[in-house]
Write a structure and sequence with these properties.
The structure is a single chain. By secondary structure, the protein is an alpha/beta fold. The chain folds into two domains: 62 residues; 168 residues, L,D-transpeptidase catalytic domain-like. Helix 1 packs antiparallel against helix 2. It is globular, with a radius of gyration of 43 Å.
């Protein structure tokens, strides 16, 4: 519908010429009636043309014509305070990518249940001990089972050491609830998998030809595979780090696999990837522009 302002302009355009034509018609002589009638008809024709022009649809503003459909205006905007992942603090240690992945997942997911935990990296022959909040309490090299593998031989915990073949001497991978205890000789150990007789304890140096102390001091992890499956650590490390961390408390030991991925064994996830997904899921639709919003 044409606006009142537009009609006001249109009336002004038509009324003024038409009023002049009527005034002239009143004073015109009879002999000039034909001329006067033609003038009136000319004025009326001009009025009709202006009215037709007013009735034609007005062109849309360019900005309006280029607007996409309302559905295309739906966007997402992030919620203030994007989700930030929780991480383990390795201090100055330089863990492998897999060790960091598992430790970060433990803290972000709370898989440790509020207990201290240990990450045993068999590939790098390293042990990392954390408090319940994921703060590193200490790291040290470790000796591990002679054979490569992530599964324990069924019933191996009940067999004599002399019957265990070299290919059976594996350190099982997995998540274990661990507790401190004493072995038959009265020495402190951290039981990891009681059924398979796997524990973490101070290095045993009784067999000279195994050179266990020298292997621990070696910068390469390639010579750290020597035990029947237990995890050997330096004596000061056990006394000053492992013992106090598990004093009066159980904990969780994560022995990383070497033939499978950590995701397969623990069901872990990448904390950065999860943070991005959680942030995206918390995004809300931005309101679409409505009439008059251009």
């Amino acid at each position: 519908m044409t606006s009142p302002n537009r009609w006001t302009g249109l009336h002004a355009l038509v009324a003024r010429p038409l009023a002049k034509n009527l005034a002239r018609a009143r004073t015109a002589k009879v002999g000039r009636c034909g001329w006067v009638l033609g003038l009136l008809l000319s004025g009326l024709a001009g009025q009709a043309a202006l009215a037709a022009d007013a009735a034609a649809p007005l062109p849309l503003p360019i900005a309006m014509a280029e607007q996409p459909a309302q559905g295309a205006l739906l966007q997402t905007q992030p919620v203030a305070g994007a989700y930030l992942p929780r991480r383990a603090n390795f201090e100055q240690s330089e863990p492998s990518r897999e060790a960091r992945h598992v430790a970060d997942w433990v803290i972000d997911s709370g898989d440790n249940g509020g207990m201290p935990f240990v990450v045993v990296d068999k590939v790098d022959a390293q042990v990392f001990v954390f408090d319940a909040r994921g703060q590193l309490r200490g790291a040290a090299p470790a000796l591990l089972g002679l054979a490569v593998g992530d599964e324990a031989v069924p019933g191996i915990g009940q067999r004599k050491l002399s019957t265990i073949q070299p290919q059976e001497r594996t350190t099982s991978a997995g998540r274990f609830v661990a507790a401190q205890d004493r072995n038959l000789q009265g020495k402190d150990i951290l039981w990891i998998d009681y059924e398979s007789a796997i524990s973490l304890h101070p290095v045993v140096t009784g067999t000279a030809k195994e050179r266990r102390a020298e292997r621990l001091a070696s910068p390469s992890p390639l010579d750290n595979r020597v035990s029947y499956g237990c995890i050997n650590v330096p004596v000061p490390f056990y006394k000053n780090v492992v013992g106090p961390a598990f004093s009066g408390s159980d904990g969780i030991v994560y022995v990383l696999p070497e033939t499978r991925s950590a995701r397969e064994v623990f069901g872990s996830y990448d904390v950065e990837e999860r943070a991005r997904l959680k942030t995206a899921s918390q995004a809300v639709p931005a309101p679409a522009a409505g009439p008059g919003g251009w």
